[in-house]
Amino acid sequence: MLGNCIEEVRKKMPLVHNITNYVTVNDVANILLACGGSPIMSDEPEDVEDITSICGGLNINIGTLNQRSVTAMKIAGKRAAQLGHAILLDPVGAGASKMRTNTAMELMKEIPFTAIRGNISEIKTLALGDGTTKGVDADIADAVTQENLDSAITFVKEFAKKTGSIIAVTGAIDLIGDDKICYVIRNGRKEMGRITGTGCQLSGMMTAFLTANRKNCLEAAAAAVCAMGLAGEIAWNRMQEGDGNSTYRNKIIDAIYHMDGTTLEEGAKYEMR
Amino acid sequence: MLGNCIEEVRKKMPLVHNITNYVTVNDVANILLACGGSPIMSDEPEDVEDITSICGGLNINIGTLNQRSVTAMKIAGKRAAQLGHAILLDPVGAGASKMRTNTAMELMKEIPFTAIRGNISEIKTLALGDGTTKGVDADIADAVTQENLDSAITFVKEFAKKTGSIIAVTGAIDLIGDDKICYVIRNGRKEMGRITGTGCQLSGMMTAFLTANRKNCLEAAAAAVCAMGLAGEIAWNRMQEGDGNSTYRNKIIDAIYHMDGTTLEEGAKYEMR
Amino acid sequence: MLGNCIEEVRKKMPLVHNITNYVTVNDVANILLACGGSPIMSDEPEDVEDITSICGGLNINIGTLNQRSVTAMKIAGKRAAQLGHAILLDPVGAGASKMRTNTAMELMKEIPFTAIRGNISEIKTLALGDGTTKGVDADIADAVTQENLDSAITFVKEFAKKTGSIIAVTGAIDLIGDDKICYVIRNGRKEMGRITGTGCQLSGMMTAFLTANRKNCLEAAAAAVCAMGLAGEIAWNRMQEGDGNSTYRNKIIDAIYHMDGTTLEEGAKYEMR
Hints:
3 copies of one chain form a homotrimer. Chain A is an alpha/beta fold.
């Protein structure tokens, strides 16, 4: 029951440590509060071990990485792993620069991520990055479509098996899978791509869902993706003439604020493969 | 007259230097503009001395501190003190990490803060932090309630006396006191806690109020707290079906934008103890 | 045709690399998306060369500069210049601190900026900063008004000639000129000054306009200024009772989101001198 996953977040109010980019950090904090979680931000190496220790989950986003924050990500990640926390990686821009690709690869080697969430281009970069991903279908296209859905699902399951992490590839069609099961999700609207940070917001919220649902993490990750897409649909229906992407951003967070388990359960559009 | 304090801000348009966290910095800037002040942000050690010199007030918030910004806080704080500026400390997360607690304690030793604003947990940490606060009631609870109000007021007055700063403890009931007088304020709504950064915004705005009302700082600090809470009430009355925390954030800043002295005077709910 | 300039942005969807301040960065990203561009942020010296290489334009804003980001600005600027990208400088706070003035002057020496956009105070600082600007009218006032318009236009053209950059001085009256032609623009509303970052947003959007209109950069810069001012007018007409600067901010970005070439062409208020 996906709907139950958001109810657990509202009940447990998980504290999530975010090491995230400064572009979308305010929206990440507000969507975490909207879904029932609680955000803390810290990216100073000297500070992160203490901060992550009082949290239940850790969200690492490399969107505006720098040498200091990468050091902090590694320290926090190791500490969070020792404590058994839910840990998520959002490899923003992997493939766009050597530093981002290398940082994401290093983090994956050093930290046992509960989930990795990105677009198809970023996830492909991680899968192919070290040149030894022979089992992975390198022909996977640049977007998940109805036509390449089968091979994309295989790709997700194989990469999940290789990494031991839940893999969430988000786009027009979202795929969230472990090595056995893949959720194919069709919530959301294309206009969400005209808002900065809907992906970052989803990563923050997904970390809260994982933290509050540790015994069914795959379902929790899928529930977060459905919730974000459904919020995009609900918010779109509340748009008035003249409203644009800035107002849409506010209304999406507002829709999460009001979303209960029943709404999520009934609005989620997915199949399991 | 609390109402007069906001009128002074609008008249004097104080320039406030903010060394604040990157999570809520945009909202801090917009609420400073909304109340009639003007914000400047700078956290580079080489830059802050010049920047703070052209301002009238300095707002130091340790929400996403790092080693560079802590250095900048100390340089700026000393310069602002030399110039007789209003200086405020928002010890975000004091008690949550050693670095935050230690940084806040060091800043308090080196800089003569006009006011220190935080939640009860943060302020208690500062009061008890160095182990020599025998005069302070260590039994003060984790929230200010009607039941423990007397001991909380005593705590605020004693900590104000010890530090020489105005102490502002904000929560469901707000206490703003110096060594002699404590304002007990009951404006605001609990839903404000579901927005990131209402505390940071208040700290920014309070710095503007202190800067524009240097001869009655205690009243100015109380006026800022009443203004923030009253804005939360006014904004809540303007919420429409489906609006959530993101829209509420905007409407609170909007309410400050329109608040005049009469509105504040009539809407402020406080007693002096 | 100014209207055509925004249509080119929507058609070409230019990717813009922003090294900008953390106060207004989210709004810069959203307005870039609103006008049809696409934003990337990176300020780490190790990362910026790769990131700027995949972009078409570079927006450098020194609003919250630090030693690391200044290094990144120089690296990115040189690489962008090699690649023939559109490069814009927003010298936020030049004149307010030695570091800001010196950084802006150094960047101007090392990087061939396509355009420099600031308020009259910042631009004057750059023009007078190195003490050798004998050709420049040092008597230019602190605001461009109907009374000093002629001398202000001369100032803009001479500084444009000296720098080889388009000079954009924005305020109540905007002047956008090269060495031969100066647009005098009268769009916008004074209430835009009560929102943080309308200047930063304009700089981001102008970079997208320049990137998508490389063969008529002066017109593109003027079109961006008209678009921003016109958005301020459209948004103001959509304000409801009780709305303030926070909502106004959202509505301005929304107005850009919906602006097409015809709207811009018809709403632009300018003369060429």
